[in-house]
Write a structure and sequence with these properties.
The complex is a heterodimer. By secondary structure, chain A is α/β, with parallel strands linked by helices. Chain A is built from 5 helices and 9 strands. A 6-stranded mixed sheet of chain A has the order 5-6-7-3-8-9, with helices on both faces. Chain B is an all-alpha fold. Chain B has one domain. Chain B contains 10 helices and no strands. Chain B is elongated and about 60 Å long. Classes of the chains: A alpha/beta, B mainly alpha. Chains A and B meet through loops of A and α1, α5 and α10 of B.
Chain lengths: 219, 228
């Protein structure tokens, strides 16, 4: 599989993202506290925790969408791509238009790059149909096509495997590994274990860092 | 290739919003239909005497334009909030100030501008003197732009709420008042044989002020709404 338009993110050896002493309380319950870690190029970090453990909240804090109501600091040193629960795919636009005019303003893509990306997520032939005719899984795939186009070194993915079929999950895992190998970094939340032959650091929101990030570094 | 430049991104955003609006023509037609219906009701309620209608026409036209604008204000960010597009906009590397300006501009093009262009027709229905029509169009062009910008602040503040409809009216109606006063006064002045330039100049000043400040308020309000 080729990586269209992915210019093997040339990032300095420094950390892409640094979290210091993050803590969050919701409704009088402490979800996590004193969470410190650095995400460096080559890291693949999976955030784990039960439902309601604060995984999405953590990702929103890391992305900078949540600015108040938590303690600690986050330093972002690189452009990031955030995929949240909502797909941000406009039902009235075709998949091609959704990517070409994407509201995240990450880059401007050529038509053939978009075609390649859509083909890679299995939407060949669906480029110009209105998105409201697509299924929920296909909506997610339009959103995932952004990963094939992205040049941001840091990816923050909230439950990227939701509503994706088995082949799609395998392709996505391969893409994440390739991104890490090329000097990018991925922070993702997921309930399923990644089946990849690449060191995956795990961050359990209750227990703290389970497997250290340093061993996951491939710089 | 890096992120698109400022203007390229704004142009892209504007195009996206316009295409989205044009694919839902009902949403564009609704305020205009509302305008036409209410204008048609006034002769029934006030009596069809042309002199009386013409006297009230500036005020009537302006009040309906304001209400038509209020109808659409709530929709500005709602769709994008619900499908997650707004989060992505807040994360974009381009300054939010210009992005929200592009949003409001797109909305104004399909509401205020259309309303101003069609207003001579409605003015005719109420028997407004022909000499006042250019002033009506000019005042609506300037005034509805202010209304859209101010309405955007209310829309951004209430976008996180399930039912923001009434709240948004309470929030922004006080700021609509000056626009209504000077907009209808401009038309009234021409009807009374006076120059309207000073009123239009004040509307222009309001527009400058809201172009400068409203996007700041909208950006801040969006960040709060997304954070909550």
């Amino acid at each position: 599989m080729s990586v269209a338009g992915h210019s093997g993110a040339a990032v300095a050896a420094g950390s892409l993202l640094q979290a210091r002493g993050l803590g969050l309380e919701r409704g009088g319950r402490e979800l996590f506290c004193d969470l410190s870690f650095a995400v460096r190029p080559g890291h693949l970090l999976q955030v784990e925790g039960a439902n309601g453990a604060g995984k999405t909240s953590l990702l929103r804090i890391l992305a900078g969408l949540s600015r108040y109501g938590f303690s600690g600091q986050v330093e972002r040193a690189a452009p990031l791509l955030y995929l949240g629960h909502h797909s941000a795919v406009k039902a009235m636009l075709s998949p091609r238009e959704n990517l070409a005019w994407h509201i995240a303003g990450e880059g401007s893509y050529r038509a053939d790059e978009i075609d390649t990306a859509l083909a890679q997520v299995g939407l060949y032939g669906y480029e110009d149909v209105p998105s409201h005719t697509l299924s929920a899984g296909q909506h997610r795939r339009v959103n995932l096509a952004r990963l094939y186009l992205s040049r941001s070194p840091l990816w923050l993915l909230d439950e990227p495997f939701t509503a994706i079929d088995r082949d799609g999950v395998a392709a996505l895992e391969a893409l994440l590994v390739r991104h890490a190998q090329q000097g990018g970094a991925v922070v993702l939340t997921s309930h399923q274990r990644l089946s990849v032959s690449y060191p995956v650091a795990r961050l359990d929101l209750r227990a703290g860092l389970k497997e250290g990030l340093s061993e996951g570094a491939h710089t | 290739m890096s992120a698109p430049g400022l203007l390229a991104f704004c142009g892209r955003l504007l195009r996206r919003q316009l295409v989205l609006a044009l694919r839902r023509p009902v949403d564009i037609g609704n305020p205009l239909l509302f305008f036409a219906m209410v204008v048609a009701l006034f002769p029934l309620g006030l009596g069809p005497a042309p002199a009386a209608l013409a006297g009230f026409a500036p005020g009537i036209l302006w009040i309906i334009a304001l209400l038509a604008n209020l109808l659409t204000a709530d929709n500005l960010f709602r769709g994008d909030f619900e499908d997650g597009s707004l989060e992505q906009l807040l994360l974009s590397p381009q300054p939010l100030y210009l992005s929200v300006l592009a949003y409001v501009l797109a909305q104004w093009l399909v509401t205020g501008l259309l309303l101003a262009v069609l207003s001579p027709l409605f003015a005719l229905m109420l028997g407004l003197p022909g000499a006042a029509v250019p002033t009506l169009v000019a005042s609506l062009l300037l005034g509805t732009a202010v209304l859209s910008l101010v309405g955007g602040i209310g829309a951004a503040l209430t976008v996180g709420l399930k039912r923001g409809g009434m709240l948004i009216a309470l929030l922004i109606l006080p700021f609509y008042m000056p626009v209504l006063i000077f907009g209808s006064a401009a038309v009234q002045a021409v009807v009374g044989g006076m120059p309207a330039a000073s009123h239009l100049a004040i509307l222009g000043a309001m527009l400058c002020l809201s172009v400068a400040l409203a996007p700041l308020a909208i950006s801040a309000a969006l960040r709060i709404s997304i954070d909550a």
